[in-house]
Amino acid sequence: MELPQGTLDLLILKAVALEPQHGWAISERLHQISSEALLIRQGSLYPALHRLERRGWIKARWGTSDNNRRAKYYELTRHGRAQLDAQATAWRKLAAAIGQVLESA
Amino acid sequence: MLSDWMLRLRAVLTRTKVEQEIDDELRFHFDRQVESYVARGLEHDEAVRRVRLEFGGLDQVKEEYRDALGVRFIDSLSRDCRLAFRSLRSTPVVTSVAILSLALGIGANTAIFSLIDSLVLRTLPGVVQPEQLVTMSSGSPGPTEPRWSYAFWKQIEKRSQAFDGAFAWSARRFDVSAGGEIQSVEGVFAAGSFFETLGVRATIGRTFTAADDVLDGTNDGPVAVIGYNLWQRRFGASPQVVGMPLTINRVPFTIIGVAPAGFFGTEVGRSIDIAVPLSAEPLLQGSASNVRAPFDKFNMWLVVALRLKPEQSLEAATTILRDMQPHIRDSAKPQIPEVREFEFIKEPFTLAPISTGISGLRRSYQRPLVTILLVVALVLLVACANIANLQLARARMRRHELSVRRALGSAPWQLARQLLIESLLLAAVGAGFALVIASWGSRTLVTLMATQASPITLHLPLDGRVLGFTMAVAIATVLLFGVAPAFRAASVAPIEAIKSQGRGMVGEHRSQFAGTLVVLQVGISLVLVVFAGLFVSSLQRLTSRSLGVDTQRALHVRIDAAQASVKPPDRATFYQRLVAAAAAVPGVESAAASDKTPLDRGNASAFVRVSGAPREVASESISAKTSYITPAWFATYDIPLRAGRSFDTHDRNGGMPVVIVNDAFVRKFFPAGNALGTAVTLSLGAREEYSMRPRTVVGVVGDTIYSSLREVSEAIVYLPLAQYDLPVPPFAFVNLTVRAAAGSPAALAAGVKGALASVDRNLTMRTSTLDVYVNDSLRQERLLALLTGSFAALGLLLAGLGLYGVTAYAVARRRTEIGIRMALGAVQTTVVRLVVSRVAKLVGIGVVAGTAASLWLSRFVASLLYGLEPGDPTTLLVAVVVLGAVSMTAALLPAMRASKVDPAAVLRES
């Protein structure tokens, strides 16, 4: 399933909200949580991660992964958390509104 | 956003590291994905294949990644820079000419700007909140700050608590030699409150305060604060300087502190090497002390300034002062019996801000400098037009490359960026050299402005303001010469790439654009040449002006007799002894003394009433300049006697009171010419009681300059020094002039000084020949003529080069056409006419525009001219001829070459 425009950022923020994650884990996590409905392509994931980093919503640091390899971990900043809340609320409102319209029709 | 730029910067600066990290991160992802497929039961090779498919090309991902990192923009920028560098290097001569003309243009602008900045714009350095400082005047402020007496200052000082303090000062030159040759330094007599009110603290030691400014001495004896430069120069920056003795004008002082670096006081263009309290003035000025004669009308010598309180407006302070005015007037009024009710501070007080200090230098050089700034800006414009043409030609040569790049998908702005970067690179390198030229140029200008008698100390830092100006000018030049060619070239159609030698519309546009530039250059050059012409012929008229005196054989000695052992009332006799001593020196033909010399910027005048004539209202129309002289004065200066006799030794007190007048005086007061034998009454003020006794005119002499070469001949009345009868003692400064019997007067200097010193060892003397004197008085005019002349020449050269380039280029492009025309029977002259006529048309338009512009612009410099009007037709005509000659030479050379084209060769080529 293709992601609607602009929603990838929101999903990434959500994926790193609990704890720092590396890129592969983020894509895996989104894949699993969505019951394998969503597939994030690497070509969009990494540019999106760096877009978010440049905006100061997430920050990156190098760490060691569970299988003992160097991996780049991304975590949410304070600014990013606020963004996540705001965007999630907006998305829910939008989804509810669209749902309502679809129901009534 | 900060994090954004930090990351971009990191990405660019640590290039390989970032690349490595991208690699690592993607590799990690790749491997994990493979592992996860293997875990789900896929063969390893199969898993790798699938992941690779999913990734859709690792490099593509990386590129997108880099894009998101913001590396690509900066990346391609640096690539463009390298490309631009290579492109500029491939045409070394053209590039050097462009950089040289930019460096000269920007450098000249920066040099003049830094001078104007220091002299006019900058607020006083080292002073706390200079915007609160104001000077006082009575009536509306004139061009110069009014001077006040010591008595007046004491009244203001008493009332200074109404403000945040008040101070007074008077700039002087001091001699710091312990004897022997004079070592002259700049200094100031300053009130005790001077440093405190300015907010200036000593670097070491202390500054003097009101406690040190007490007449008749303090416990510490006479004290002095020395300037930072003198401390470095003379005391090697020794910290032990505090407490050391310093001899000023042969009087011992004690150094109590050193003023901070960069502090030069309140007068821009001067420096303070030594500051002494006002109370020390009687010690240093001896019998000429102004402090000791506080109520003297002639002793107006102090500039008085106030510091406003933080919330105090100029109006509020003025009101307070005006309320005090009657008391101040009563207490500080000149108390000379003969001049009982002198018009003293009659007009209400006004205040004027002096946040940028006061400056005589600024008054005389502000206009010339702004004029020169305009001139150098115009030269820079001509240079820009040239470079615009060069850039256009360069882009044109690369038209094929550009259109290929267009065809391959480059956006026009990308091509324009490439060309703009070339221009920016040119401007940046030019600006770099410009800074070197500027710092040398501004210093050289200051030495051109200074004379031996009035040195200039001007701090010219290469600071943020100056650098900012240079950068702004450099960017402006890029906008001027880079933008239009860049976008014009970038708009090349992709189809051009297909036509190998196409002559599309771009070419036509180009020549139109180049034509506009030629018109601009010619117009501006004309303005430059007109300006130069106006200033050069003003200078010429001034130097060739008859002074009315012979300057060739005269040596001038300015004598300060303040420390001489003579009582002030006896000075007249003393000066006559000096004259006798000088006249006895071998090689001296004659010697004379006077209070004024021709060109001396002094001003003494009196109202004149011819005996028998009705009394007139005192005004400029009945005033004449006065000068006290000794008998041989006219002979020494070689001023012709028109009628009657010169002064002789019988003209002294007790004899008949006499005067000698000049031709201008006769024209002004005796239109019928019957001056000889008539009595005239001179008076110092408007009222009857200011009048001196009547004096008989016994001689008429030729006109001379009085105080400036620019003035028309003034009416002058000469009085014998031996009959000096003003209510105040004679002047403490006297001008002695000797005339050499033969040869150079400079050779007499040592002998004359020795003879004078044998009369009194305590005289301070400065000698110069009159020629130097005359030259010094024209330094402002000379500077203007020199600079406008050189820059006009530079502008003309640049315009000529530009015209030559444009014509040569046009000829080269029309080679085929010319060849065909010649094959069809056109003769050489036809070809030359063909080329030149187009250029002539452009030059014609440029000349018309330039004439209009110079007529308009030259009105603003009218006050700097002498002897000719702003729109002087001769100057204009000469300028047009010069410009026409240069333009035609520049156009004829390529035209001649074009006419030598071999038609057969051309036809074979095509």
Verbal overview:
The complex is a heterodimer of chains A (about 100) and B (about 900). Chain A is an alpha+beta fold and about 100 residues long. Chain A has helices spanning about 5-15, 25-35, 40-55, 80-105, and strands spanning about 20, 60-65, 70-75. In chain A, a hairpin with a 5-residue loop joins strand 2 and strand 3. The mean pLDDT of chain A is about 85. In chain B, strand 6 (about 245-250) and strand 7 form a beta hairpin. Chain B is globular and about 130 Å long. The two termini of chain B are about 60 Å apart. At the A-B interface, helix 2, helix 3 and strand 3 of A face helix 1, helix 2 and helix 4 of B.
Kindly name the structural category of chain B.
Answer: alpha+beta
Question: How many E strands of chain B?
Answer: 21
SS summary, helix count of chain B: 27
Overall geometry of chain A: globular
What's the gyration radius of chain A in Å?
Answer: 15 Å
Structural category of chain A: alpha+beta
**N-to-C terminal Cα separation of chain B, in Å?**
59 Å
State the oligomer. Answer: heterodimer
Share of residues in helices of chain B = 40-55%
What topology emerges from the helices and strands here?
The complex is a heterodimer of chains A (about 100) and B (about 900).
Chain A: H1 7-15, E1 21-22, H2 23-33, H3 42-55, E2 58-64, E3 70-76, H4 78-104
Chain B: H1 2-13, H2 15-39, H3 44-55, H4 58-69, H5 71-89, H6 92-121, E1 133-138, H7 150-158, E2 166-175, E3 184-190, H8 194-198, E4 204-205, E5 223-226, H9 228-235, E6 245-248, E7 251-258, E8 274-277, H10 281-285, E9 303-307, H11 314-332, E10 349-353, H12 360-397, H13 399-407, H14 412-449, H15 464-481, H16 483-490, H17 505-543, E11 554-560, H18 571-583, E12 588-594, E13 605-610, E14 623-629, H19 633-637, E15 641-644, E16 658-662, H20 663-669, E17 679-683, E18 695-701, E19 716-720, E20 733-740, H21 749-759, E21 764-769, H22 770-777, H23 779-813, H24 815-823, H25 828-858, H26 873-899, H27 903-909
Parallel strand pairs in B: 3-8, 5-7, 14-19, 16-18
Antiparallel strand pairs in B: 1-9, 1-10, 2-3, 2-9, 4-7, 5-8, 6-7, 11-20, 11-21, 12-20, 13-14, 13-17, 15-18, 16-19, 17-18
Helix pairs in contact in B: 1-2, 2-3, 5-14, 6-12, 6-14, 6-15, 7-11, 12-15, 12-16, 12-17, 12-23, 14-15, 14-16, 17-23, 17-25, 17-26, 18-21, 23-26, 24-27, 25-26
